[in-house]
Design goal:
Blueprint: H1 3-21, H2 26-39, H3 45-48, H4 55-72, H5 75-84, H6 90-105, H7 110-128, H8 133-147, H9 155-170, H10 172-179, H11 186-191, H12 194-215, E1 231-238, E2 260-267, E3 270-272, E4 286-292, H13 293-299, E5 305-307, E6 322-329, H14 345-349, E7 351-357, E8 377-383, H15 386-390, E9 396-401, H16 413-428, H17 431-442, H18 453-466, H19 472-478, H20 481-500, H21 502-514, H22 518-537, H23 539-554, H24 566-577, H25 587-593, H26 602-625
Antiparallel strand pairs: 1-4, 1-5, 2-3, 2-4, 6-8, 6-9, 7-8
Helix pairs in contact: 1-2, 1-20, 2-20, 4-9, 4-16, 4-18, 4-19, 4-20, 5-6, 5-7, 6-7, 6-8, 6-12, 7-8, 7-25, 8-12, 8-25, 9-23, 9-24, 12-26, 16-18, 20-23, 21-23, 22-23, 22-24, 22-26, 23-24, 24-26
């Protein structure tokens, strides 16, 4: 091997060590490795940074914005609440949980889905008296499985797909003349991973839902003990003409709320203290809840409930910028020993008090009549800049925001789902044929290839912002820039592995060790190798780093097989998307690790059989759908 090959292999080796050590951030390690390759002249700077403008990377950024719009309108959480229901046992509960999660994950980023489901599943487990550890790992695995069914299921799928498109463009003559391949259509790109992903999802859900009863231990989460926390009394009003009017407390989802309970209802001046699950809600009912601040924030997201005080609507701020803030009244505050109405709190601070906490005791009376005292903690509905404006004020001792306490725009949920449906339609329908017909019929000059995935994603992301399903500020914040940097840098490293010969050298070693197993056996081994790499360098990094190795294994050079590369592309994508072995290789596995009270080895109980299933299905199904030697 020439020195460039050895140097590149050394840099990749150091990259893997850095990522395994967990002492360096993934994006920092990737960018550092790319820099070392540029400094040595292994890859030209222009080629090294092309990954950051790659269509797959930009499409991923747009998908984060689309997911933000679905989350901000409550579209996904509304679906989740309806689909879970009241199962009779643990196996039934896991089926009810995993099927909708897998379906949603096929069409949107799985990270926000798991974030949304965590508190819902925690509450659900409490109601069903099921250990959360029997549900959280199935939740994570279902999201992973669903992500392996379509192009937009995960950012990894998009990255590998774009790498193959670039590879095809550089090797069109060889691939077309040898195997009769054509550049994959938009519809093929969207669905071809489903050849492995869909069967794997069906088999995997059955295996996890049933097998968890024996394979998944019943752990106790570290934070299951009751901790005495600050509780507020909050009055909410049932709005006229909303879906919860005429429903029982149970049907409206207001019973057994985590950290919150409905103590009484005020109706037409009468107080109903014995509030049972069958009590029917009426318009203008005042519901009095007692609970912790996080639960109060969730309560404000329920469609049909609004704070009973009319001061909230008078706060001068855009609805998208409205948030919850906690503030402690100081001894020097002009609010002390004055009731809230007399203090003109809303006019003075452009904020509305929706609840008051005082030493663990309930403060009687309506909000406007409460006389404030030093040390009272106020829960405010206000503008996003309140903390910055008053953090140095001597009116308050302490001011802090309530994370995730933004208003949900339920009235736009249907619109957000429509935009999501448009994205799927544009990515699956043969727009090239439609544009061709329109060009012929009307003499237009529409692009012959139709609407590209990047164009479709940008269009739908723009519509999410223009229709105010999410704001531009939230859209920017929703993008995971670490993911963008990791994939962009990894694409540059992959190009360097091509040009230096490092990819071919790795492929030659793998082939010499497994070549006697034939192409099907090599696919099986390559899938397992990808799964192991994913635990070392995350699924996105492993997929991009191993792509040139996959192409080298399929090519005629370096002692490769000389076969159609598409089975290797599908195997790489499906395996990298399905990361089950440990909690460290995938962010959503880490998200459920603590709440589920899991041990590191718990993932192997379910993850190892699932990994072997992916490898087996890849070796069997990928060559059936995309033959090694098409036309023979």
């Amino acid at each position: 091997m020439i020195w460039e090959t050895w140097y590149t292999l050394g840099v990749v080796g150091m990259l893997i060590v850095a990522l395994v050590s967990n002492r360096v951030g993934t994006d920092t390690a990737m960018l550092g490795a790319l820099t070392l390759l540029m400094v040595a002249g292994i890859i030209e700077p222009a080629k090294a940074v092309m990954g950051f403008a790659d269509p797959a990377v930009l499409t991923i950024a747009a998908l984060f914005v689309i997911a933000c719009g679905l989350s901000e309108t409550g579209a996904t959480s509304a679906l989740a609440q309806k689909l879970l229901g009241r199962p009779k046992g643990g196996i039934s509960a896991r089926f009810r949980l995993m099927i909708p999660v897998a379906v949603m994950s096929a069409f949107m980023n799985n990270t926000p889905i798991v974030v949304m489901y965590l508190p819902i599943v925690s509450d659900w487990a409490r109601k069903l008296r099921i250990s959360p550890s029997r549900l959280f790992m199935p939740l994570s695995f279902a999201a992973i499985m669903g992500g392996s069914c379509t192009l937009i299921g995960t950012s990894t799928n998009l990255a590998v797909n774009q790498l193959y498109l670039s590879y095809f463009a550089d090797n069109t003559t060889y691939l077309s003349e040898t195997f009769g391949l054509t550049s994959p259509s938009t519809a093929k790109q969207f669905w071809w991973i489903a050849v492995i992903g869909l069967p794997m999802t069906i088999v995997g859900i059955i295996f996890v839902a049933v097998g968890s009863k024996w394979l998944l231990p019943q752990r106790v989460a570290p934070d299951t003990g009751e901790i005495e926390r600050r509780r507020y009394t909050v009055e909410m009003l049932v709005e006229k003409g909303t879906p919860i009017v005429g429903k029982t407390i149970e049907q409206a989802g207001l019973r057994h709320l985590p950290g919150l309970f409905l103590s009484e209802i005020e109706r037409e001046g009468n107080l109903l203290r014995a509030v049972g699950p069958e009590t029917i809600l009426e318009a203008d009912d005042r519901l009095i809840f007692v609970g912790v601040v996080d639960s109060v924030a969730d309560l404000l997201k329920i469609r049909g409930l609004v704070p009973a005080t009319d001061q909230v609507k008078k706060v001068e701020t855009d609805r998208h910028a409205r948030t919850l803030v906690e503030a402690v009244v100081s001894h020097e505050s002009p609010l002390v020993r004055r009731n809230i109405r007399e203090s003109q709190f809303r006019t003075r601070y452009n904020a509305a008090i929706i609840a008051v906490h005082r030493g663990g005791e309930r403060v009687e009376g309506k909000i406007g009549d409460i006389v404030l005292q030093p040390g009272d903690t106020l829960l405010l509905s206000t503008h996003a800049s309140f903390i910055e404006t008053y953090h140095n004020s001597d009116h308050f001792y302490l001011i802090s925001g309530v994370e995730g306490a933004r208003e949900v725009f339920h009235e736009r949920a249907g619109l957000a789902l429509g935009i999501m449906a448009l994205l799927i339609l544009l990515m699956t329908m043969p727009t090239g044929r439609l544009f061709g017909a329109l060009n012929t019929r009307f003499g237009l000059d529409l692009p012959a290839g139709g609407i590209a995935p990047l164009t479709a994603a940008f269009l739908c992301a723009t519509l999410m912002v223009w229709t105010r399903c999410c704001t531009g500020t939230l859209a920017r914040r929703s993008i995971s820039w670490q993911v963008i940097l990791v994939i962009g840098a990894a694409i540059g490293i992959g190009k360097a592995m091509y040009e230096s010969g490092a990819a071919g050298a790795i492929a030659e070693v793998i082939f010499s060790a497994t070549g006697n197993m034939g192409p099907h056996g090599l696919l099986f081994i390559f899938s397992l190798l990808t799964a192991v790499f994913c635990q070392l360098v995350t699924n996105k990094g492993a997929a991009v780093l191993l792509f040139p190795v996959a192409m080298a294994l399929a090519a005629e050079t370096n002692g490769g097989l000389g076969v159609n590369p598409e089975p290797f592309v599908i195997t790489l994508t499906a395996t990298a998307a399905g990361n089950y072995l440990t909690p460290v290789g995938c962010v959503i596995n880490l998200m459920v690790y603590g709440p589920g009270g899991y041990r590191f080895t718990d993932y192997l109980r379910l993850g190892l059989p699932l990994t072997l299933m992916v490898a087996g299905l890849s070796a069997w199904l990928a060559p059936m759908a995309f033959p090694f030697h098409p036309g023979t």
